[in-house]
Structure formats: structure tokens, C-alpha cells
Amino acid sequence: MHNTPLRTERLRHGWTQRQLADFAGISLSTVERAEKGEAIRVDCIQRLCECLSKSPEELGLLKIDVRAVESNNDLKQHPPSLPSEGRDECFSFGKLKTTWKTLDGDGRSMYLPRHIRSHYTPFAEELPEELQVRRNHILQEQEQKREQGFPFFWNGQIYALDRFVIGREPTNEDMTLDLWFRPSDYYTFLATNMSLSEPALLEKYLADVD
To answer: pTM for this one?
Structure first.
């Protein structure tokens, strides 16, 4: 079973599944499940609808079973106890706790939390003129949709990864990772992410970036 309406709408925008996932702020696997006709969470449906300016019915999206939601909420309120090593594998930044595990480029070697150092630069990066114009266009477009009563992207504060440094600690030569974050927002993310498919901008700003 395949969700033809969602796939058709995605292709109409000229987006890959990965791009749709990035623009909607959900995982690639969620988009893949949705296009297979499988049920996904209500909040993911909302993000897809806002991203594509369509209703759930128009996109043929299925909501996750109510009993599964209740079960999930119960888990959130009464989480199972995890062994300390299970919790320690997950990345955190300040008060932000995640379920992410940080792996090396081979996808197998894991960074231990004590070897990950996070740094925060409390001011946003100034956007190049081309990207600032694109961000302003996104802002105006979404405000117009909101005023007209159509689904729209709402802007929100997020962290942007500014740079990282990979090294080794001297005792056991375990991998170390230093991360520098800056404040950003969702409209800036959209403006920069949409620009990744434009060779001219990549050549201008990312030609020397690995």
C-alpha cells in the first residue's frame, strides 16, 4: 500500500523524501512510513500539512492509533528505568536532553559523553545577503498564509551547529568532540537548507568546506 497523494504532492514541489523531512522538521523514516500508507503521529501529520499547505485528508495521512498514543503518554509519565550506561550514551546540551547517540564517521564508533564538550556562542551568525533575502521572503510568505487562514510554518528558536573539532584524549586515545552552537531560528534553517541544492551558492560559500 502506498500513499499516492502525499508522494504526488512531494514530487510536485520537486522535493526528495529527505528534503520533505528536513522542511517539515520530522525524520526521514516518518516520511517513508507515511508514503507507504502507514500510520504516523498526529504532530508529524500537522507538520507535513503545514509544509505542503494541505489537509490530512488531501494528503491521505493516517493518524497513529489512539491506544498507542495513550500508551506512549503513559511511558512519558512513567518512564522505565534505564541502566546508567544506557542513559549516558545519549547527547545532552544544557537542559536539553535528547535520545541521540553521537557516532564517528564510520557509524559504529561512539563518543562517550565525558569526551563531548559543548560550547555556546550567544549571538547569531549574520546571514549572507542572498540568504537574508530568502529568509525575508519566507517570513513574508508565511505571514501571508497565516493572515489568509492557510497552514503556515511558525518560526521558533533553535540551535545551529557553528563548527566542530574532532580529537583524541591522551590516556586511552578515546575520540573527543568539541561542538560550538549558536542561536538560530526555523526560518533561517529553511532559507539555508533550501539553498543546498543551488550549485552557485555552494561554490560561493561552501567550496572549501568538508
So the answer is: 0.52
- Per-residue pLDDT of 129-150, as tens digits, reads 889 999 999 999 999 989 998 8
Amino acid identity, position 191: A
In the beta sheet, which residues pair with residue 159? 183
> Looking at residue 115, what DSSP letter applies?
G
How many whole angstroms separate alpha carbon 139 and alpha carbon 188? 10
Amino acid at the residue 32: E
Residue 146 vs residues 22, 23, 61, 185: alpha-carbon distances, Å: 21, 18, 22, 18
pLDDT tens digits for range 29-70: 889 989 988 888 887 888 888 888 888 888 988 765 434 444
* Nearest C-alpha neighbor of 120 from the set 90, 88, 91, 93: 93
**CB of 127 within 8 A of CB of 187?**
no
Strands 96-101 and 116-120: unpaired
Q: Taking phi first (over 0 means left), then psi (-120 to 50 degrees means alpha), and beta for anything else, what does residue 148 get?
A: alpha
- DSSP-derived secondary structure for 17-34: HHHHHHHHTS-HHHHHHH
Q: Name the phi and psi angles at 38, rounded to 5.
A: -85, 155
Of 119, 93, 124, nearest in space to 180 by CA: 119
Q: Do the Cβ atoms of 156 and 186 come closer than 8 Å? A: yes
CB of 193 within 8 A of CB of 135? no
